Every structure is written in C-alpha cells, then in structure tokens.
Amino acid sequence: MIIRAIEEARRIFERMNNYAIYRITETIRIMLFIVLAMIVFNFYPITTVMIILLALLNDLPIMTIAFDNTQLATKPVRWDMRRVLTLSTVMGVIGVIETFGLLLIAKLLLHMEGGQLQSFIYLKLAVAGHLTLLVVRTKGPFLSKPYPATALLGAIFGTQMLAVLIVGFGFLVAPIPWSYIGLIWVYCIIWVFIEDQAKLHLYKHLDLSGKRHASFLDCVQERFHSHTC
Asked: How far apart are CA 213 and CA 46, in angstroms?
C-alpha cells in the first residue's frame, strides 16, 4: 500500500512537471511570436477570436495529461525550477523560430495576406502546440515508451480535427485551401523531430550525461586512480 502511494505521488509529480513545462513553453511561443510579428511586420498575426480558440482547444488535451502514462523516477523527486524554466525557454524559442519560418513561407512564397494569412498562422500554432505536448511529456524520445494515454491522444486528435475544419471551412476565420493545411501539417511534423532532438540534448546537458561530461568524468577518474595506485 505504501509503495503504491509513493508510485502514485511520483506519477502526479511527473504530470505536474510536464504540465508546467508545456504551459510556460506555449506562453513564450505564442506571446513572443505575436509581439515580434507586430514589431517586424506591423500586423496582427492572429485575431482575438483565434486567441480564444487556441485557448479552448489547448485546454482539453492539457486537462487529460492528468491521466497520462509516465515513467517513474528511480530517485526521489523534487521541483527544479531551473530545469523547468530552461527547458521551457529553449522549447519556446524554437517554437518562435519555427513559426517565423512558416510566416515567411506564407508571405514570400505563397503570397498570402490578410485574413487568410492569419488563419494559416492560427492553424500552425494549434497543430504545433499539441505536437509539442507530445514532446515535453517525456524525457526520452517522444515515440518511445511510455506512450501517451488513450485519453490524451483522443483529446489531441479531436481538437486537431476541429482546428482543421475551422480553417478549412472558414468557421469564424477566413478559409484556406486544403493543400495549405497539408503543408502546415508536414512542416510541423518535421519540426517536432527537431524539437525532440533539442529536448534530448538539453536533458543530457542538465543531467551532466552528455559526451563532454562523460569524457570529463572519465578523465578525472583515471587521474584519481593513477594517483591512488
């Protein structure tokens, strides 16, 4: 009974930790992008209605994280805000770069303007946000175990389909071609692997388990043993 209680407490901690990382990441990603887009391009990249839709569509998947599968820590756990803020900031900045890249594609290659451009960016933020949730929910590769819970995947799939239908049929926003919707998905899927690799390298650095750290520790151990022999 005590062991089960400890395991459940660790699961709750991991879920809360993942929730905090995701929330901070999304806040940095959306707010920083909006401000920079207004400064650089002098226009609002998304409307007030789109911000409300983003908040609503993000709430359901993030609530189901309470039922997500987590990997239990082998050591006692505690809050490490330095780790949380570092990971969130890096992931958020990557998201801003990712969104600016798609914005430039839309303006320079697709020649989109006005409401269509805003719908284009809105869908990108919706898609990338949920894919980022799959990345930050685990310390390992996002395609490895523990896999997302059925409730989390169902919530992500349902809200993503709703976001696609909103921009595809132009409900409350300007409609965009279905080919552009496919382009957004391909673009976001490519970037999710980039985000995942960045996360893995950052965790290695924070855990002092990267190649440089390992070689340094090996060197120290060799010198220590040579002096003690």
From this structure: 43
pLDDT tens for 142-180 read: 887 878 888 888 888 888 899 999 999 988 898 999 999
CA-to-CA distance for 55 and 147, rounded, in angstroms?
25
Q: Measure Cα distances from 69 to 7, 53, 144, 196 in Å.
A: 12, 27, 12, 18
Residue 69 CA to residue 138 CA, distance in Å, equals 9
Q: What is the pLDDT of residues 193-216, one digit of tens each?
A: 999 998 888 888 877 654 554 554
Q: Which of 187, 68, 205, 72 is nearest to 136 (CA)?
A: 68
What is the amino acid identity at position 74? T
- Helix, strand, or coil (residue 77): coil
Using the Cα atoms of residue 83, residue 86, residue 90 and residue 91 in order, give the sign of their dihedral. Answer: positive
For residue 13, pLDDT over 70 is answered with: no
Q: Which long-range contacts (CB under 8 A, 24 or more apart) does 61-65 make?
A: 61/130, 61/133, 61/152, 61/155, 61/156, 61/159, 62/19, 62/22, 62/23, 62/133, 63/155, 64/149, 64/151, 64/152, 64/154, 64/155, 65/15, 65/18, 65/19, 65/22, 65/133, 65/137, 65/152
Task: Please report the domains of the chain, with CATH numbers, ordered by start residue.
Answer: 2-228 (1.20.1110.10)
